[in-house]
Amino acid sequence: MRAERLVALLFTLQSRRSATVAELAAAMEVSERTVHRDLGALREWGVPVWTEPGRHGGVRLVDGWRSRLDGLTTREAVALLTLGTPRALAELGLGTAVSAAHAKVAATLPAQVREQAQQLAERFHLDTPGWFRREEESEELVTLARAVWSEHRVRARYRRGEDEVERVLGPLGLVLKAGTWYLAAQAGTDVRTYRVARMAQVEELDEPFERPPGFDLAQWWARSSAEFERSLQRVAVRVRLSPRGLRVLPRVLDADVARAGLAAAAAPASDGWTEVELGLEEPEIAAGQLLPLGADVEVVGPPEVRAAFVELLEAMLARHR
């Protein structure tokens, strides 16, 4: 988008004392003609750009002039204007900070960029929770966020079924997954995951803890969630699917499970049905997961999954007689 490119050009000029049009074109990956047009646009915005002729000349900003956006990338500047104050940040107690940053950027950037950001906000919206479920709310989230930032231990009461256990934890980070907040925390020598909505009471302690060297929350979460998903896939279930069943399978099951099964599937049989092997959970759960496929699935094995599937169908039929 042009506004984004113009801000990038402004930042490039600020980072260099002088640059030729050819150098700017190479840095921006555009033509020299485009650079000339963009320089004219910056002048129209009131940016004091001038061209110094001669062998050692080039394009430069007037000495001493700088925008007030040093340190922001182009996408960051435009994204901040588009962002507003997401509910997730407000829940962490950061809503006011985001609003203040938004106001500062909006007051600094040219009107064209502000207008473009407004258009983006009107056309794109991120809604993270899945359908038919609400975001989980927790009164303890702000306390946990403060403890994560200050690297202080917390004492938490955590619900497990009908019981509560008390734990002293070293909070390493918070993750929002499909509307649900999770805490990654040190528990003894291990790093474990806790669902924030199950924390009945959290108290920040005046006791610092040491983060594991090199701990990366995003990488840890990717590994942890992948291991959790694999731990649930205990049964290799063989099914036959109609052509329609093949198409809707990724919408019925976890997309990764469906893709893995479809990628390894054999060619369709003479009746057009395809046998697929899927990594699913225990028999009763697997049967329930396959039920939405209706008449487009036949459970081949193992026998306990087929029996659980038939039992579900018979119970449904009995209720509708």
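The record above closes out task 2.4. Task 2.5 opens with a second protein, given below.
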Amino acid sequence: MITAIVLIKTSVDRIPEIAEEIASVDCVTEVFSVTGTYDLIAMVRVGRHDDLADVIPGRISKIQGVEGTDTHVAFRAYSQHDLDAAFAIGLES
């Protein structure tokens, strides 16, 4: 499974509608409205790298109001348990 984090700039007057439309795209598992440079973040999970082209430029970028995307492909996933353990290294109980 390949996970891509897609940072999305949109027309600010249509953020909720655009988020709903992106969320309905196959392989998009979550869409978050966020503060900062980007308006939305979408999590995309596909079986092959080639599938990213079908989902991101092929579907998400073509949604009316999407002004641009910046995609980051994940190398490895860490569970909350793993993160808690990593930050606890060296701390006494």
